[in-house]
Structures are given as structure tokens and as C-alpha cells.
């Protein structure tokens, strides 16, 4: 990391063409292929190499602990590379299919909000969470032949294929085959499970300031689709245009990552800071990380529990609101009467609160130093309290309370996401960084599965088992 600082690590000086075309800009496909092939240079550390890596928790090796601390402090001085936000947004926009676009997908399939077919659709949509759950850890076994950088590209391609199914097969061709739902959400979930933890791992050497922008890609992507995009739809633009927009953005994100970031991360075959970056980010194979789990895993358990709670609230209460406020108008202050707002406008405001809570909290999480384990636990408790409070607010069942619920629920999850990512990068031994991210997100995916499969139960919990003039309608009216 000190070598990286010595090189300056500025985008202008560090970005090189992956294939060296004498100054000519490479095409999209040649850039991606060159980056993927060059990624083979980023090797997994052998067991004997890992013995030389610094370990914070090995008290008998004070020099090793000081070495990693120097790496962390050096990375903290690296300037932020804000373009990483664009890459993350292009990818995570595919994840937004679990939001309002999920309901639009269901309507186009001619499926209501209640009944057996609706329940099957809900379980198919839950494949997003099952895919994440399986691949956050499963990739370390099933994709062991691929280095982390290659897995990132594989995940991006898989996400593009999953997002292509609704606009092409359902909207363009008019198919209502229920199997498309399983294939689409399954591909999205598997790709997201591979991408999230691996991407956060490979960009770690770019420093915490760059990573703070990367993790804001989640709320930014949801804000673009669910606020800006749904606002445009409310003015008459067909909703399938949003599906196509998501598909088109993915190759842009792939190309940007391949040409701008891969050369800096040691995937361009160059020397200097790129090779130094690859050296400091060598990862143990998962079996070796498990053998050394006593060094890092017990301390990670509270972060995993916080991720379970946050994802349960996020993936359960959020879709339940779509199925609760399912009339053409949404009540703001009372279940039975009072001020009304068109449902499309209501959800635009809803996602403004989601975006504000999630994005601001992720940035705030990186503003606290959190130098001790105790301070990290206190921060996690604060985030969990916000998530639970947001969940309880949904039961009020009126529009204003739903907005407040969205803000607090996503503030809690976003804050704990930032706190956990910062902890892993700073205190978990660097060779176990990918394993730590995998276990942390594996736990979060378990909470997301529990929440997504209980959407119908949470809807009944909010509706008190009743139907109202503009709320909890049996069979969608929109």
C-alpha cells in the first residue's frame, strides 16, 4: 500500500490500456476480454505465502500487526475514485427488479396480489435471495477455478441475462409462462451473490474512500429506478422502458470496470502500483480461511446478526408495502378516509425516503472512526434499533407512517452495512477479506430469504386481516 501511495495512484497516471493498442481506444468486447484474461495474473495466495501476511489478531507477531496497520493507514490516504459508483449503479440496477418493477412484472404476467398463483410468483421472486444465499459462500467452491476478478465479470454477464428476460420475453413477445419468473430472478440472485462480496473484496486496495462511494451504489441505483424512473412512468412512459434501460446500462458498467479499474488492480499485467495492489490483496482459499477462522470469525458474528435483521426488514417490509397500498390511490393519514395520493406518486415519495435513509446512513457510517471493537458493537446496536423501529412503523398502515418506516428501516441497514464493511477491511486479516465478506453476506442473505418468503404474512400483519377502501385490496386494482 505504501508503494501505491508512492506512485500517486491517481486515475490519470495509473490507467493503462489493457491491451496496449498504441493509443487507440479498445472496443468494448476486446477491453472486457483483455481484462478477464489478464485477471489470471491475480493469483490466490498459496498456504506458504499466507504465512508471511500480517495478522492483526496474532498477538505473538506484533510486527505483522503493525505491518497491516500501516497498509490500512496508507490506503486511507488514497483519493476517492468516484467512477466506481457508476459501475456499482449499473450492476445493482438489476437488483431493483425486486421493487416496484417486480409488481409491474407480475401485472404484465396477469397475476393478482392474492391467490395460489400470486403465492408462486412471490416464491419465485424469492429466488433472488436464495441465489444470493447460495453463491455468497458457494462461489468459493463452485467457482474456485476462477480468480475473484473473473468472478466479477461472470456475475455482470449473468445479471444482464437475468434482466433481459422481462422486457424481451414477457413485454416484447407477450409470453406469460411462469417459468420466466424463476429463470429471471434466479439468474439475478446467483449473479448478485457472486458479485457483491467479490467486488467489495477486489476494490479494497483502492482505499476506504473509494469503497464508501461503491457501497452508495445500492441506494443510488434504487433511487434512479424507483424515484426518477417511476416518476417518468407516471407521466406516461411505458414501464418496460425501465427494464430496457437496466439491460443497456450493464455493458456500460462492464466496459468501465474493465478499462478504468482492472489495470489499477493488477489485472493489466503492468508494473508499479498495479502489481503492488495485487500483492496486498492476495486471498486465501476458503479452506485455509476456515482453518484460521478462530482469528476472525467469532468477532464477525455480531456483524452477521445485524445483517440478518437488516435484510429481513428490508426484503420483507418493502415488498409487503407494494401489496398493501394496491389501490389506484393511497391513504396518507387514515386507513378509511382522509387525504389521498395516487399510488404511483405515493411510491415515488416512498422511495425518496428509502434513498435518503440508505444513502445518507452509508456515508455517515464511514465518518465515524470506530477504532475499537466495543465502538463497533455500539454502532451495530444503533443500526439494529433503527431497522426494528422502521419495521414496527409499517403496522400503522397509513401512507405517512410508511414513509417514516422506509427511512428508518433503510437507515439502519445502510448504517450497519458501512460499519461492517469498514470493520472487515480494517480489522480482519487481509488474506481472509473475501471469506469474511462471504460469511457476512451469507448471513444477510439468510435474513433476506426469511423476509422475502414472509411478504404475504407481513401484508396480513399490516392489514390486520381486513380490506379497506384504498388499502389491502383483494386482487390488485392498479
Could you name the key traits of this structure?
mainly alpha, disordered N terminus, 22 helices, two-stranded antiparallel sheet, 478 residues, globular, single chain
Can you describe what's shown?
There is one protein chain. It is globular and about 60 Å long. The chain is mainly α. The chain has helices at residues 2-7, 11-14, 28-38, 47-50, 62-76, 83-92, 100-108, 116-125, 127-142, 148-172, 179-202, 208-215, 217-234, 240-261, 273-280, 286-291, 293-324, 343-365, 373-393, 399-427, 433-452, 455-463, and strands at residues 329-331, 340-342. A two-stranded antiparallel sheet has the order 1-2. Strand 1 and strand 2 form a beta hairpin. The protein contains 22 helices and two strands. Mean pLDDT is 81; it is low at 1-26, 40-61 and 268-276.
Low-confidence stretches: 1-26, 40-61, 268-276
Report the average pLDDT across residues: 81
**Beta-strand share of residues:** under 5%
Q: Kindly provide the radius of gyration, computed on alpha-carbon positions and rounded to a whole number of angstroms.
A: 22 Å
Q: How widely separated are the two ends?
A: 55 Å
User: What is the number of E strands?
Assistant: 2
Strands of the widest sheet, in order across it, are 1-2
Major β-sheet profile: 2 strands, antiparallel
- Overall shape: it is globular
Compute the number of helices. 22
Q: Which assembly state applies to the chains in this document?
A: single chain
Helix/strand-derived class? Answer: mainly alpha
Brief characterization of the structure:
This protein is an all-alpha fold. It contains 22 helices and two strands. The chain has a two-stranded antiparallel ribbon with strand order 1-2.
Amino acid at each position: 500500500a505504501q508503494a501505491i501511495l508512492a506512485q500517486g495512484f491517481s486515475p490519470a497516471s495509473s490507467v493503462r490500456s489493457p491491451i496496449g493498442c498504441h493509443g487507440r481506444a479498445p472496443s468494448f468486447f476486446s477491453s472486457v476480454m483483455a481484462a478477464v484474461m489478464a485477471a489470471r495474473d491475480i493469483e490466490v495466495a498459496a498456504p506458504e505465502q499466507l504465512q508471511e501476511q500480517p495478522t492483526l489478531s496474532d498477538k505473538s507477531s506484533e510486527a505483522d500487526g503493525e505491518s497491516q496497520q500501516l497498509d490500512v493507514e496508507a490506503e486511507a490516504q488514497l483519493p476517492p475514485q468516484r467512477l466506481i459508483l457508476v459501475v456499482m449503479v449499473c450492476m445493482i440496477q438489476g437488483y431493483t427488479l425486486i421493487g416496484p418493477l417486480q409488481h409491474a412484472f407480475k401485472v404484465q404476467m396477469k397475476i393478482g396480489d392474492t391467490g395460489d398463483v400470486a403465492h408462486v410468483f412471490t416464491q419465485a421472486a424469492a429466488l433472488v435471495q436464495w441465489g444470493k444465499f447460495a453463491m455468497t459462500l458457494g462461489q468459493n467452491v463452485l467457482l474456485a477455478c476462477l480468480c475473484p476478478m473473473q468472478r466479477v465479470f461472470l456475475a455482470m454477464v449473468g445479471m444482464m441475462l437475468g434482466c433481459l428476460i422481462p422486457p424481451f420475453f414477457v413485454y416484447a413477445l407477450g409470453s406469460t409462462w411462469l417459468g420466466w419468473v424463476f429463470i429471471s430472478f434466479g439468474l439475478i440472485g446467483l449473479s448478485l451473490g457472486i458479485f457483491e462480496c467479490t467486488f467489495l473484496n477486489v476494490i479494497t486496495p483502492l482505499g476506504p474512500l473509494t469503497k464508501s462511494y461503491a457501497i452508495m451504489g445500492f441506494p443510488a441505483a434504487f433511487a434512479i429506478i424507483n424515484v426518477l424512473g417511476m416518476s417518468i412512468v407516471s407521466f406516461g412512459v411505458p414501464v418496460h422502458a425501465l427494464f430496457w434501460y437496466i439491460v443497456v446500462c450493464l455493458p456500460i458498467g462492464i466496459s468501465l470496470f474493465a478499462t478504468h479499474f482492472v489495470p489499477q488492480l493488477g489485472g493489466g499485467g503492468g508494473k508499479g502500483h498495479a502489481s503492488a495492489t495485487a500483492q496486498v490483496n492476495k486471498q486465501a482459499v476458503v479452506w485455509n480461511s476456515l482453518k484460521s477462522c478462530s482469528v476472525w470469525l467469532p468477532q464477525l458474528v455480531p456483524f452477521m446478526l445485524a445483517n440478518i435483521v437488516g435484510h429481513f426488514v428490508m426484503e420483507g417490509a418493502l415488498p409487503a408495502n407494494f401489496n398493501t397500498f394496491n389501490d389506484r390511490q393511497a391513504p396518507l393519514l387514515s386507513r378509511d378516509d382522509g387525504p389521498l395520493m395516487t399510488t404511483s406518486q405515493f411510491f415515488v415519495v416512498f422511495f425518496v425516503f428509502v434513498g435518503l435513509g440508505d444513502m445518507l446512513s452509508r456515508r455517515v457510517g464511514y465518518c465515524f472512526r470506530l477504532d475499537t471493537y466495543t465502538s463497533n458493537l455500539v454502532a451495530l446496536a444503533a443500526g439494529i434499533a433503527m431497522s426494528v423501529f422502521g419495521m414496527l412503523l409499517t403496522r400503522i398502515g397509513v401512507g405517512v407512517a410508511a414513509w417514516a418506516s422506509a427511512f428508518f428501516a433503510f437507515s439502519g441497514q445502510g448504517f450497519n452495512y458501512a460499519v461492517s464493511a469498514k470493520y472487515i477491511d480494517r480489522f480482519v486479516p487481509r488474506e481472509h477479506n473475501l471469506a469474511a465478506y462471504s460469511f457476512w453476506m451469507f448471513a444477510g442473505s439468510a435474513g433476506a430469504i426469511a423476509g422475502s418468503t414472509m411478504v404475504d404474512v407481513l401484508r396480513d400483519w399490516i392489514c390486520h386481516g381486513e380490506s379497506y377502501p384504498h388499502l389491502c385490496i383483494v386482487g390488485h386494482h392498479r
